[in-house]
Design goal:
The structure holds two protein chains of two kinds. Chain A has strands at about 5, 10-15, 20-25, 30-40, 45-50, 55-60, 60-65, 70-75, 85-95, 100, 105-110. Chain A is mainly β. In chain A, the strands form two sheets. In chain A, strands 2, 4, 5, 9, 10 and 11 form a six-stranded mixed sheet that branches. Chain A starts with a strand and ends with a strand. By secondary structure, chain B is mainly beta. The radius of gyration of chain B is 13 Å and the shape is globular. The chains are: A mainly beta, B mainly beta. The interface of A and B includes residues 42, 43 and 45 of A.
C-alpha cells in the first residue's frame, strides 16, 4: 500500500521556468510533510518542510503548497536553475512514531 | 567529516554470501534508520532504532538484520545475499521528532 503518491516520475524544465511536483497522502495521522533533495552520488537532504496547520511555506525559490482537505501537497521551484537538477522526494511523518514515508521520487532536469 | 558515514561505499558480492554494511554518526542522535533505494521505488525503510535497546522492523525487513552496537553505530546485515537485494542503501539519523533526517552518502551493493 503506497501511502504517499508522488508525480510526475520525471520532469524536464527550461532554465527560468517553474517546476511543480505533486504528492498525495491517505493517512490523516501524518503530521509533518518534508521534501528532500538528492544529487547524484549523495544522500537525500532536507530541503523544506511544512506542518498541516499552514497552507503555504516559502523559502527562497522553493514553496510548499498544502491542501489539508484534499490531502495533497506540492513543491514549486520558481526560476528553476540547472543546479536544481536532482531527485526530489516528498515525505510524510507519522504522528505516532515519527517514521517517515517517502514518495517514489521525481527526477528533475533543468535545461540551460 | 560527514555527519553520517557509511562503509563500504561500493560492494560487489556473490549470491549466498553474508555481508555487513556499517554506519556511524556524529550527530549525537538516538534514532537511526536503514533505507533501501531502488529506481522508481523511492526510499523504503528496512529497520529503525530509537535507542540502543530498541530495534524495529520497517516495511521491507525480510532478508535483513541489524545491530545497534552503540548510540553512534548501526549496522545492516544480509545473511545470505540474493540478486534482488542489489540496490543503493542509505543509513540516516534524526532527533526525537524526526523533523530532519541526516543521510549518509549511501552504499551501492551489487549481488551477482
Amino acid at each position: 500500500q503506497q501511502q504517499v503518491k508522488q508525480s510526475p516520475q520525471s520532469l524536464i524544465v527550461q532554465k527560468g521556468g517553474i517546476s511543480i511536483i505533486n504528492c498525495a497522502y491517505e493517512n490523516t495521522a501524518f503530521d509533518y510533510f518534508p521534501w528532500y533533495q538528492q544529487f547524484p552520488g549523495k544522500g537525500p537532504a532536507l530541503l523544506i518542510a511544512i506542518r498541516p496547520d499552514v497552507s503555504e511555506k516559502k523559502e527562497g525559490r522553493f514553496t510548499i503548497s498544502f491542501n489539508k482537505s484534499a490531502k495533497q501537497f506540492s513543491l514549486h521551484i520558481m526560476d528553476s536553475q540547472p543546479g536544481d537538477s536532482a531527485t526530489y522526494f516528498c515525505a510524510a511523518r507519522s504522528g505516532s512514531n515519527y517514521k517517515l514515508t517517502f514518495g517514489k521520487g521525481t527526477l528533475l532536469t533543468v535545461n540551460p | 567529516d560527514a555527519d553520517v558515514t557509511q562503509t563500504p561505499r561500493n560492494r560487489i558480492t556473490k549470491t549466498g554470501k553474508r555481508i555487513m554494511l556499517e554506519c556511524s554518526q556524529t550527530k549525537g542522535h538516538d534514532r537511526m534508520y536503514w533505507y533501501r533505494q531502488d529506481p522508481g521505488l523511492g526510499l523504503r525503510l528496512i529497520y529503525y532504532s530509537f535507542d540502543v535497546k530498541d530495534i524495529n522492523k520497517g516495511e521491507i525487513s525480510d532478508g535483513y538484520s541489524v545491530s545497534r552496537q552503540a548510540q553512534a553505530k548501526f549496522s545492516l546485515s544480509l545473511e545470505s545475499a540474493i540478486p534482488n537485494q542489489t540496490a543503493l542503501y542509505f543509513c540516516a539519523t534524526s532527533g526525537p521528532g524526526n523533523t530532519e533526517a541526516f543521510f549518509g552518502q549511501g552504499t551501492r551493493l551489487t549481488v551477482v
